[in-house]
Design a protein that fits this description.
Radius of gyration: 19 Å
CATH topology of the largest domain: Nonspecific Lipid-transfer Protein, Chain A
Number of helices: 10
Order of helices and strands: HHHHEEHHHEEEEHHEH
Largest sheet: 5 strands, mixed
Helix content: 40-55%
Strand content: 15-25%
Number of strands: 7
Length: 226
Amino acid sequence: MRKGYGQFCPVAKAAEVIGDRWNPLVLREMLSGSCYFNDISRGVPLMSRALLAQRLRELEKAGVVVSHEKETGHGHEYVLTPAGEAARPIIEAMSVWAQQWCGGHIAPEDLDDALLMWAMKREINLDAIPLQKIVLQFDFRGLTKGRRTARSWWIIIENREVDVCQKDPGFAVDVLISADLGAFTYVRAGYTPLHPALKQGTINFEGNGDFVRQVPTWLSLNLKSE
């Protein structure tokens, strides 16, 4: 663990463990169910793998994470200890605070369609989805990283398993979601409600009528009124 704040204050001691740069995001990934190195890394794509390995070791030393060797003998599984699980309300409170006070502070360089799709894959409300194959296509425009301005993704849900594809899987699409990446990110993050974006045309759903009505619930989109 790096040099601390040099204070006995409990806030300082907590910040040394869970407030250090990247640690809240690592904990966010683990609290969302990621337990393998590659899955955690996918949720923090700008964090180097070497730094992630270092932070996981530090969190383990602090008693927040424990690692077990995989049954295959290759790699490790990372599991939150009771102390790590107890950080859940703290991380959730950070999200609630940001939704209330930081809604206007997403910079163009913060937008990332791959990270957005990964977050939706983990958090799809499977209990609300019919027990049949469902195919969702996402056509995003307004990408800001690199030279691309638009990109498509597909989510396939079948047998309570969720797959994300960047290439057309060749299945019939049940719902097509066309959206400005920034507008969709704001709604998905809980900063703004869905209905104004639908009215403005920055987000649009097409396809099976019943599914179109249900898809916001499936994707946990922000349906609260303004």
